[in-house]
Structure formats: structure tokens, C-alpha cells
Amino acid sequence: MIYLDDATAAELRAGYEMELPLTPVGEVDKFLADFVDATEFIGLTVFEQTQEKRRGAFDKAATALMNLLEALSGLSDIDNSQLRFLLTVEIESRLPESLRLQWQEIVSSLTKTDALAALGQLDLHARGMAQVAQGGERLEAFAGRMLLRVFRKHHLPWDYAETGYAATCLRVMLRLSGRDDITEQKRIRHWLEKAEQPRSR
């Protein structure tokens, strides 16, 4: 689990409010939550596993998520309460004890629309992580693409300036992902530019 320390959270919050000064109350908190989620996905790539095992794990996750997504999409007549019961019975029983309470909290207010949207995003993340694990893309490039996705979701301007908000966020993201390499920190502009390309190395 990745947490933002007070100083980092304050820095990102201040930068966001400078970029979008008229943003409604609470939007910056949603941005920070999405930022942390994206960083956690990136951090998964630094697990000490072999590249082949890592790729296989993400491929398997992506396949399972797509199968579940297709199955739920086909249940056109299922209502929200039935969906919550299905997810509780099928998934909660397979989770370790330490995660069951958290899962119950997630499922308690879940709707079918929310579930399909979330599974779709998870599937995209898993497939993206599988590509990174194959060695076909640098982690810095993948981090840039993930950050760009978060920026677009929150309608934040994207620029390549090394002193800009996107650069600040990418530096934090790489540091929290374990890539606090001074050489790569100096190439922030490069990774910001590459983020807008379909695939980058």
C-alpha cells in the first residue's frame, strides 16, 4: 500500500489548485486518490519475480477479469442486490481473512454499472502491466502514460515543462514506485513527451 506523506500530499494539492483554481471542493481529493491508485499499479512491477512469472500473473489476471466482465455484462436481468450477493459468495470466500472486511465494505454499496466500469479499468491495467512485464516498455514510460490518463480524467493540462505540474507528479510517482534514479529524474521531459505516444520505450 502506498501512502502520500503530508509534505508530498500538500505539494500535489497546491499544484492542482494552481492548475484548476475554481475546482469544486473535494475534486482534488479524488485526484490524489486516483494518483495513488495509479502509482500502486506501477509499483507492482518492482516485485522481485522473474519477468516470465510476472507476465504470466498479469496475463492470468487480465483473462480472469475479462471473463468476469463478459459474464456480468450478459446478466442483463440481474439487479444490484443480486450482484452484491454473487460477488460476496464467489469472491469473499476465496479471500484471506485480512481482506474480507475490506471486500465487504466495497461490495456493500456496489451497483452493476460501477462493477462493470471498475472491472473494465482493472482489465486495462492488467493488460498494460503484462506489456511492461514483458520488457517491451520502460517503467518510466508506463508511469508517464498512467499519469496522463489520470490527468485527462481530471481535465488537468498536460505539458512537458520540467518545472510544471505534470513533471512534479511524475517525479513523485517514480519515487514512490522505487525509481528515484537521478538520471531518470533528469529525463522527466522525455517521459512526459513519450506518454502521449501509443507505446514508448
What features would you describe in this structure?
By secondary structure, the protein is an all-alpha fold. It has two domains: about 1-45 and about 135-200, no CATH class; about 50-135, no CATH class. Helices cover about 70% and strands about 0% of the residues. The chain contains ten helices and no strands. Helix 2 (about 25-45) runs antiparallel to helix 7 (about 140-155) and helix 7 (about 140-155) crosses helix 8. The longest helix is centred in the first third of the chain and has 24 residues, at about 50-75. Residues about 45-50 have low confidence and may be disordered.
Strand content: under 5%
Pick out the low-confidence regions: 46-50
What is the total number of structural domains? 2
Supply Rg. 18 Å
Number of helices: 10
Per DSSP E runs of 2 or more residues, the count of β-strands stands at 0
Q: Which overall shape is indicated by the principal axes computed on the Cα atoms? A: globular
Mean pLDDT: 75
Separation, N- and C-terminal Cα atoms = 27 Å
What's the arrangement of secondary structure elements?
Blueprint: H1 6-19, H2 27-43, H3 51-74, H4 80-91, H5 97-108, H6 112-133, H7 139-153, H8 165-176, H9 182-185, H10 188-194
A few lines on this structure:
With 201 residues, the protein is mostly helical.
Features of the shown structure:
201 residues, mainly alpha, 2 domains, 10 helices
